Amino acid sequence: MTVNPEESNGTISSHLYGHFAEHLGRGIYDGFWKKDAAGDYIIRDDVVAAMKELGVPNLRWPGGCFADYYFWEHGIGPKEDRPSVVNNLWGGVTEDNSVGTHEFMDLVAELETEPIVVGNVGSGTVEDMANWWQYLNHPGESPMSKLRAENGREEPWNVHFFGVGNESWGCGGSMRPEYYADLYRRFSTFLHAYGDVKPFRIATGPAEDDYNWTEVVMERAGDMIDGIDLHYYTLDGSWSTHKGQAVNFDEGGWFRLMKRAMFMDELLTNHSAIMDEYDPEKRVWLIVGEWGTWHEQEEGSHPGFLYQQNTLRDALTASVTLDIFHQHLDRVKMANIAQTINVLQAMILTDGERMLRTPTYHTFDLYKPHREATALAFELEAGEYAGEGETLPAVSATVSKNEEGRIHVSLTNIDPNEARTVEVSFDGIKKLKIKSARILTAEEMNARNTFDAPDALVPTEFEGAKFAKGKLVVSLPAKSLVTIGLE
Ligand code: AHR
To answer: Where is the Alpha-L-arabinofuranosidase C-terminal domain (predicted)?
Structure first.
């Protein structure tokens, strides 16, 4: 591996490490919130502490699909006056609107994060959406700021990021891109700048490789869009039959998931190329607003709650995906893994009062030093991992340099059988020393944390790196991720 410290791919925005909390399963209720002795929902301190340790650059809410079913007026005012509705999409459970705008913004304040609020285009009206925006942001005298004050909040929240619908091609309204582009123009016209807050308007983007969606929406509405929201999930199977198992998989399942995760590179390349036609200055962000692994939900868990375990395999698909984002920094500026707590590729799982950090949490932790650092260009040739009659590059990487001049190298060996030795040379830099080195690995491909053994799989000190003849020599065990800090 040759690193060129003079050549950069750009700054790694913290926003690429964003999160997502939908009213789905146990993400909100019994996730970020729990019931106290009086039966009222309160924010979980343990969950907030764990997430703050990781750092949450942004949090997307209230969906997902739920966003296009959500009427924000149901979630304000005295709790006893809030209507209950049916969460038709996710398990058919009763949503009593205990967590609404004020509660979500309290969580945002506790996490010290930035909100991304997604409005309802699918079943709501322009007036609804414009009123919500005014409720969130109007600093002076207005009908909605008056209502906000009556509900206990004088100051506006200054929400900047606003989604104009979600998956409008599917659960958000089954629209054609031509129709959505027109609706987008109409809805977003009524999101006005208030005080210092100018809306950053996020349009529904494509599903996976629906390049026509990107083409049509960019062509017809690109001039009014600030970010376009691509969704791509990694499955070992298919949407229509079986998505694949979270824990009980064989090496074929390991290989296929790695391959699907790597497909993100092709998606970002192709969608970016289309965006370049309409926005050569790269003003519009390509946002990966939903990504992560999606397995069959855990047996015995509530249908429609999308609760799944998380193994070393998930952790390495996450590091490979983050590496890919770092190769597309000129266009890809924000991403949200789905979803933070108890849903899909979660950071945290809870069981009553118990909670655990998943292996994916630890990937995000190992990648923390890269945030807001400069991504350095490199060339890497570390052999191939063969499986299922195909091959994949065995090692994936990110190299970055932070403001203090410290370089961090992250290397993922996706091969579950073979160790790899990577020799890293840094063009033009002579004296570097290893300052830190941590590894995430395990004997089993499906190693994971459980409520009885919450720290079974955590990063440990890594002894397999040294300098020899001016090169950093890294002995990467099979199926491992390491991050090494150099100065
Ligand atoms: O994250 C789960 C669901 O996946 C979201 O609600 C939706 O946007 C996507 O299809």
So the answer is: 289-480
What domains, with CATH codes, occur in the chain? 13-373 (3.20.20.80), 376-486 (2.60.40.1180)
Give the CB-side neighbour count of residue 188, counting CA atoms within 13 A.
26
CB-based contact 309:97 (threshold 8 Å): no
**Of 327, 263, 287, 294, nearest to 206 (Cα)?**
287
Nearest to 465 by CA among 407, 415, 416, 414: 407
**418 is known as an active-site residue:** no
Determine contact, residues 465/473, Cβ cutoff 8 Å: yes
Ligand 1 atom nearest to 344, measured from its CA: 1
Q: Which two tokens stand for residue 305?
A: 């709650």
Q: What are phi and psi of 209, to 5 degrees?
A: -100, 35
In the set 114, 167, 178, 353, the catalytic residue is: 167
Task: Reply yes or no on whether 290 is catalytic.
Answer: yes
Contact 161, 116 (CB under 8 A): yes
Q: Quick check: 367 and 50 in contact, CB under 8 A?
A: no
> What is the 8-class DSSP label of residue 246?
S
Distance CA 187, CA 199 (A): 12
pLDDT at 427: 86
Residue 463 near residue 457, CB atoms below 8 Å:
no
Q: What pLDDT does 361 receive?
A: 98
- Cα separation, 346 vs 348, whole angstroms: 5
Q: What is the pLDDT of residues 417-440, one digit of tens each?
A: 999 999 999 988 778 999 999 999
Tokens found for residue 202: 């996020």
Residues of the chain where predicted confidence (pLDDT) is lower than 50: none
d(CA 58, CA 336): 8
DSSP-assigned beta bridge partners for residue 61? 117
Structure token pair of residue 137: 């942001």
Active-site pick, 110, 219, 290, 487? 290
What is the maximal distance between C-alpha atoms in the chain?
Answer: 72
Q: Which is nearest to 463 in space by CA: 476, 478, 444?
A: 476
Residue pair 358/348 in contact by the 8 Å Cβ criterion: yes
Over 163-197, what HEC string results?
EECCCCCCCCCCCCHHHHHHHHHHHHHCCCCECCE
